[in-house]
Hints:
Layout: E1 5-7, E2 23-25, H1 29-38, E3 42-44, E4 50-52, E5 65-69, E6 84-87, H2 88-102, E7 107-114, E8 122-128, H3 131-140, E9 142-143, H4 146-150, E10 156-161, H5 168-171, E11 178-182, E12 187-191, H6 197-215, E13 218-226, E14 232-236, H7 243-247, E15 253-256, E16 259-262, E17 267-269, E18 273-277, H8 287-292, E19 299-301, E20 304-305, E21 312-313, E22 324-328, E23 340-341, E24 344-351, E25 361-364, H9 366-375, E26 377-383, E27 389-395, H10 408-422, E28 425-430, E29 433-434, E30 442-443, H11 446-457, E31 466-468, E32 475-477, H12 490-493, H13 497-515, H14 524-527
Parallel strand pairs: 2-7, 4-19, 5-6, 5-11, 8-10, 10-12, 14-24, 24-28
Antiparallel strand pairs: 1-2, 3-4, 7-8, 7-9, 11-12, 13-14, 13-15, 13-16, 16-17, 17-23, 18-22, 19-22, 20-21, 25-28, 26-27, 29-30, 31-32
Helix pairs in contact: 1-3, 9-10
Bound molecules: adenosine-5'-triphosphate and manganese (II) ion.
Amino acid sequence: MKFNDVTRGSGLEEHGITNANLIYWTPPTAVLYELIVKRGEGLVSHLGAISVKTGHYTGRAANEKFIVDEPGTNKNIAWGKVNKPFESARFDGLYNRMLAYMHGKDLFVQDCYAGADKEHRLPIRIITEKAWHSLFARNMFVRATEGELDNHRPQFTVIDMPNFHSIPSLDSTNSEAFIIINFAKKLIIIGGTSYAGEIKKSIFTILNYLLPIEKNILSMHCSANIGPKGDSAVFFGLSGTGKTTLSADPYRSLIGDDEHGWDDKGIFNFEGGCYAKIIKLSKEAEPEIYETTRRFGTILENVTIDTHTRRIDLDDDSFTENTRASYPLTHIPNIVLSGTAGHPKNIIMLTCDAYGVLPPIARLTKEQAMYHFLSGYTARVAGTEAGVKEPSATFSTCFGGPFMALNPAVYGELLRKKIDEHNVSCWLVNTGWSGGPYGVGDRIKIAYSRALVKAALDGTLDSGVFEKEVFFGLDIPTVCPGVPAEVLNPRNTWSDKSLYDETAGKLIAMFKENFRKYAEYVTEDVSNVM
Ligand code: ATP
Ligand code: MN
């Protein structure tokens, strides 16, 4: 018996795991709940979600991520700050100590898939030290049926041992934490951090390597949904820009909230679950996601919980701003069960512009779409020592720089072809500030962003009048149902117009400076967009 049972394990020998105590094979949610509680890993909350804390790391440890430099993949990987090389021999040394650490331990295995499309899916195995990470893997990846489990041959394995720490002087890691991808061994090892997002984003990274190279499939850091007329849409965007929020839409069925592929048939989700930011989640603005925080099976990461009443406080950021809920897609009422859809009719590029100078929505030409895709702009609100918070621009290529193992031009070229071939309409949506920068203006209401996206996707905007905005050269609609007209052109919303002009100029200069590195990969009409 492999399913729904606790047995002494087998099948891990090929990775050198021979002396584990108990191995739990693909345990279901209820069993994991019992184990999480029994092992003191988390608490059941008031309405049934399970609450856990990650400790030191409450977000991705970007500096601690490496890829083993080996001959099979060396030439393809875009080495640099994001994809840092790791010596193969050092990997072996660290891995051997990790194996020793695993001796005598209880381990949790989830056999599942990355990719909803049966033709392209990658059988994977997630081996974890913690029961709650096993539940995370079960929520987030695509489940295998009982029959499929019998013949599961993993093509990539993740081993996640957060309580095992590396020794920087010995292992050439940066700290005690590490996330190391080894393509030759088809292995990802994680230690020193309990942030569950590392598990899903390391699998995303390998798909971003394998799919374009092996299958000519575009892999994308985006959410996706589909309208009643069968028109699918993808939403690119960096963290916190609204992929998860805006793709959960009562009028459209959710395909996925974060990672998708685009092949000759259309788009498909890589995952089987969502990982939503839930800090200050509003029941009114995000009802579908709010509901998941009260469901059995949902993992609440770093959310404050009253240990006596077991009630949670979604507004409390004392552990981190980055509180998350992990839940299977089936916790959302309107989903596409297959996780697949045809070619998208629209592409939305989301940005959270904390400078408040980009319009809430703009229609993009194909050249502008390429420019913004490669630029991958958003702006965070960065705190300084004095506690003053100001915007700081981030450019992260393909709206997912940290997960892109190949040269951005590879993804850019695949996207360009697909936009051309399927005549996709592209939009830029600013879910950030309006009426001034952070501190002066306000973040655009979620209701406005939803109304703008709806009008873009259902053709309402296209049938109306656009004006040319002079700073970024964008086409912006002059009316949109449900949104006050004066909000549409951001300059109108600033009381100090000359400050708007100056701020827009500053942002354009940052765009240009950042884009210089892409000029060699694109035609002049793209590099001249700004
Ligand atoms: P990640 O890649 O980290 O998962 P994401 O793109 O999925 O990021 P969301 O989880 O959707 O980001 O986060 C958007 C956050 O911004 C949510 O907390 C949401 O409540 C908030 N928000 C505020 N105003 C808006 C808006 N106008 N549109 C979208 N989200 C908004
Ligand atoms: Mn998200």
